[in-house]
Specification:
Pfam families: SnoaL_3. InterPro entries: NTF2-like_dom_sf, SnoaL-like. This is Nuclear transport factor 2 family protein. This protein is of the alpha+beta class and about 150 residues long. It has a single domain, classed as Nuclear Transport Factor 2, Chain: A (Roll), CATH 3.10.450.50. It is about 35% helix and about 40% strand. The chain has four helices and six strands. A hairpin with a 2-residue loop joins strand 3 (about 65-80) and strand 4 (about 80-95).
Length: about 150
């Protein structure tokens, strides 16, 4: 493993989140492998195959007017032609505007994510993304009360 592998994986991981923020579906699509991919969005079932995974991102992008990711706790591990990135996605998002406003209400969310990459002749490509919501203390209290 060389430092350049780690940097290249970090760049691809960053490009993935930037494509989401910019609503750039073409760039996002190009960052995924062509086959045998999987994705788990928080609260969703496992999506497999390029068609299912990319449809999910098209759906998310079409229903999200604003999204921004602040990544923390990022760790990159490269072993041969595979790499794993773990991070916390600090997400700020907004839905459709109401009553003539520019943007709907903003909502914050914490998600821990694991992104798995595979080296290809075109560079590092996403093989799998798994996001899981982080429950806050108030979320846990609400579950205990149910």
């Amino acid at each position: 493993m060389s430092r350049t592998d780690t940097e290249a994986v970090e760049e691809t991981n960053t490009a993935f989140y930037e494509a989401m923020e910019q609503g750039d579906f073409d760039t996002l699509s190009g960052l995924w492998l062509d086959d045998e991919i999987s994705c788990v969005h928080p609260g969703w079932p496992v999506l497999t195959g390029r068609g299912e995974v990319l449809r999910s991102y098209a759906l998310i992008m079409s229903h999200t007017d604003y999204i921004q990711f602040f990544l923390t706790d990022t760790k990159v591990t490269v072993i041969g032609d595979a790499a794993i990135v773990t991070c916390t996605e600090n997400i700020l998002s907004g839905g459709p505007a109401e009553d003539g406003q520019d943007l709907g209400p903003l909502v914050g969310q914490l998600v821990v994510a694991t992104n798995v990459f595979r080296r290809t002749s075109e560079g590092w490509r996403l093989w799998s993304h798994h996001g899981s919501p982080v429950l806050t203390e108030s979320d846990e209290d609400a579950e205990d009360d149910a």
